[in-house]
User: Which sequence fits this backbone?
């Protein structure tokens, strides 16, 4: 059985209705939009055409016609005459959808304007601005379902990202023309204020300088390629004030703590930062200050100190790391230095109590003694008699002290506390110096047990008459082996001439294994 199919055509004598049907329903008021949606759900908008009112049968009913006239009215019963003809003979439509504002929904647009003032104008401290922006970035990342640190305190990486963002925004605002040249791979124009600094853009989009120290191996990347900032921008102002504040105008002194609390530790650490500068990384062990039932309290104290320090100095990119519990050997040289200091310090100070000023002075003198020890030769030049010390990393040169006469006698019987303190310091430095040289002997023996001294080797000459901060250094000028071929005596060239010493009175400074003679 065949099924007849027919095509649907819809007609209206309102051009406004056609306009409504040919536009999205959301453009019209609620009443019209609902009816347009209802119609377009049943028919397609392109099926609708315009018919003149005199050819519209529905117009007869809407205008009102007597029943006698409808009986013989062909328009009412059969529609317009042209509807029964082929489609090609139907009236031409043309543009029957004129533009209309009737029943059009008013459009509402929401615009967020950027305030003209700089973001940093709201802040008087650089570190506070960094922290606010870092928390905003963390909030945005969480809104985007991105991974964020679970710690409530900011990490150094988040602070660094906020700092880069501030620099980036400042540079793009004040060096907009230069940025435009960089984006188009063009050279910076000759009228640019930063042309003399040979600027370039790094991987983070920051404009940096490329000067004469680019090829230096001893400088870090930020030192070889400093970030370029405008002279009078809020970021430069806050950054200068911040740097001026954290250096405490150039002076402070490291002090011990009077008790073991977070507040006192932070005060001591602030003094350390002022004296030595803020470190990038702090490492400490998990040693328990308390024992027994208070072990948890010790752990909480360490964690509280870590959070407080990183929270206060995170804007300077400080991080704090603990070595695993029960693994002091992972502390390496710094743990060995702490061990050697504590052992002698306890032996020297266990018999007497000291006030805060005396203890501060003693620790400062001991610190200078520890930081004056020679680590390795300054160079491979056989005529060079200088050794590298921790003091070179702290102040750029060897640490010096005033020459003091030796204080003799039993420290326990001294009434003058200042004389007692000087004697205690002298005893400590002599014992520590002697034990440090012994440690160098042992370490050298472990690394190369059969190694002889050679011409050009740098050594420390044992001399009990030198002050604690002085080390008599020299280079081997000639060697005198015994019958077994092992060196027994050496001539050493020092700053005061050549001296002869047995090998038991000299200590070889460690060098890299690759540079040892075969």
Assistant:
């Amino acid at each position: 059985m065949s099924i007849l199919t027919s095509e649907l055509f819809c007609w209206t004598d309102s051009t406004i209705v056609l306009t409504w049907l040919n536009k999205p329903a959301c453009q019209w008021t609620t009443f019209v939009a609902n009816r347009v949606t209802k119609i377009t759900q049943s028919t397609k908008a392109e099926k609708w055409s315009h018919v003149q009112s005199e050819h519209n049968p529905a117009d007869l009913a809407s205008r009102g016609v007597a029943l006698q006239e409808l009986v013989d009215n062909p328009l009412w019963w059969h529609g317009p005459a042209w509807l029964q003809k082929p489609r090609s003979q139907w009236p031409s439509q043309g543009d029957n959808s004129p533009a209309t504002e009737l029943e059009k929904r008013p459009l509402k647009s929401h615009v967020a304007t950027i305030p003209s003032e700089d973001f940093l104008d709201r802040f008087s401290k650089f570190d506070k601005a960094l922290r606010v922006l870092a928390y905003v970035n963390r909030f945005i990342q969480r809104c985007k379902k991105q991974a964020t640190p679970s710690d409530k305190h900011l990490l150094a990486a988040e602070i660094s990202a906020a700092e880069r963002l501030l620099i980036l925004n400042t540079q793009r605002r004040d060096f907009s023309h230069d940025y435009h040249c960089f984006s188009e791979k063009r050279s910076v124009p000759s009228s640019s204020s930063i042309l003399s600094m040979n600027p370039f853009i790094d991987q983070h989009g920051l404009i940096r300088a490329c000067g004469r120290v680019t090829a230096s191996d001893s400088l870090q990347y930020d030192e070889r390629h400093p970030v370029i900032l405008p002279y009078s921008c809020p970021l430069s102002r806050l950054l200068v004030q911040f740097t001026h504040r954290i250096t405490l105008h150039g002076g402070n002194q490291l002090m011990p703590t009077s008790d073991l609390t977070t507040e006192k530790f932070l005060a001591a650490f602030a003094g350390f930062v002022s004296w030595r500068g803020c470190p990038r990384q702090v490492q400490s062990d998990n040693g328990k200050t308390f024992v027994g039932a208070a072990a948890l309290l010790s752990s909480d104290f360490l964690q509280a100190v870590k959070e407080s320090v990183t929270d206060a100095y995170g804007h300077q990119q400080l991080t704090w790391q603990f070595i695993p519990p029960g693994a002091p050997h992972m502390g390496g040289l710094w743990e060995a230095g702490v061990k050697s200091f504590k052992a002698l310090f306890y032996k020297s100070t266990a018999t007497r109590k000291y006030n805060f000023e005396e203890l501060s002075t003693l620790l400062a003198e001991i610190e200078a003694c520890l930081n004056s020890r020679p680590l390795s030769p300054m160079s491979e030049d056989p005529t060079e008699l200088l050794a590298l010390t921790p003091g070179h990393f702290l102040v750029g040169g060897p640490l010096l002290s005033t020459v003091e006469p030796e204080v003799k006698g039993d420290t326990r019987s001294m009434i003058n506390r200042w004389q007692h303190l000087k004697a205690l310091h002298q005893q400590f430095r002599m014992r520590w110096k002697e034990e440090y040289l012994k440690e160098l002997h042992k370490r050298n023996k472990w690394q190369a047990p059969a190694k002889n001294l050679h011409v050009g080797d740098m050594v420390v000459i044992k001399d009990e008459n030198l002050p604690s901060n002085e080390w008599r250094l020299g280079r081997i000028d000639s060697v005198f082996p015994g019958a077994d071929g092992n060196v027994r005596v050496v001539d050493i060239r020092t700053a005061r001439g050549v001296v002869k010493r047995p090998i038991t009175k000299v200590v070889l400074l460690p060098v890299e294994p690759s540079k040892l003679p075969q």
In short: The CA atoms of residues 155 and 429 lie 40 Å apart. The first helix runs from residue 15 to 21. The chain has 16 helices and 13 strands.
